[in-house]
Amino acid sequence: MKKNIFVIGLNDFNLPLLKGIQNAENYQFHPLLAGEDIYEPSVYRVQELMDKVRGQLKGFSGKIDAIVGYIDMPVSLMVPVLCHEFGLPSASLESVLKCQHKYLSRLEQKQCIPEHIPQFQQIDPFAPNPLDNLELDYPLWLKPVKAAGSYLGFRIHSPQEYKQAIETIRGHLKRISEPFNYILTQDNLPEDLAVLNFDHCLAEQIISGQQCTLEGYVYHGELQIYGVVDSIRHRNRSSFARYEYPSKLPQSLIKEMTSIAQRFISHIKLDNTPFNVEFFWDRGKDKIWLLEVNTRISQSHCYLFAMVDGSSNHEIMVDMGLGRQPQFPYRQGPYRYAAKNYYRHFEDAIVTKVPAPQLLDKIQKEVKDTRILLHVDQGTRLGHLLEQDSYSYDLAWIFVAGNSRAELRTKYGQVAKAMGLEFSTPQVSPENLCSDKVPLPTLNEPVLLPDFDPASKSAVIQI
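-> structure tokens emitted (463 positions)
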């Protein structure tokens, strides 16, 4: 009989990738939650979502073999709770929180890998004068203890920028923190974790360098890394430009990063789960910094693994959900390289033209093995988009594959140009003023890529 795999947030982009994994004919994939319930809702109703999922699962007449998910908020915290309730394999909620709560995670890292983390402190943005409690020197990075995609994250260079960032965070943090505090009420948490909350921020020393992500899993205490993806940022140093696979980094460096990840993951007793670990390598100082650990596969990398290795890393997620050792293929895909590109706009605007579905289909057929996920419609006001980073707007994801890195850039340029997005500058009035975006930080170099189109303020040719 087919195994019943329940996938929280299953959508039309990920379903074909799931159906392309090894042994997919032996699985029946069931969606749990969808649409606005899970993808950047105006309000995260975590308790209501949990109750809704419980009802669906209890009403299922067959055997529940796995509950899995590939989304960060709120799925990564829902999965261990639900698996515990239904007696399914998963990491413990305690170990997941020691990754997902950024301040708690830094405290645990300080105990086992102190030489690979920056100076940090917890900040209460709702304190009467949070500037009084700041101990770190500028520049620093300020972000919520739980968020995704650099949402409400700021590079801070002065007290003025700090105050501006705090005001923005105060206006939006409760949307995330209050619903997620429900997770901390679960009765299987130790008392020292149950007293935590998500109403705080993490301030930490700026770390930088070449960024990469190690994708792996832990099975019965044994850690395995199956791929390394380079994360390439725009020259504002904050907004992601693309993820590219495989990594350019030397194997000796990857081996050292793997050892660092192993020390932390063993320390917090994270087990029976996929994960990904983000690192910076400061080449000049030959210094490795650990940025964060996520207790899930990265859906941003799924297409990349499918194109290069022959199967999406959804396969790892499914195997771990079933409680068995993955047997992931290596370099059996049709291409040597693959990338996820972020089509971004760097100032508020109104989208005046988007490609019709027929044009998107035509582009994806003509530029072979390309996938486009468009996030905006005609008339979209960029300043009203949810969960954007603090310095840009994410308009589309463009996935490409090729047999050279140059081919990746060429394909991205063809796709982005053919899409033909157009924008107009909105009229500024008290009624429609969007003030959440902060100015780009002052840097020594221009905040433009060499192939950036200054006329539209969008990266539309190559990155």
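Residues 119-205 form a domain with the Dna Ligase; domain 1 fold (CATH 3.30.1490).
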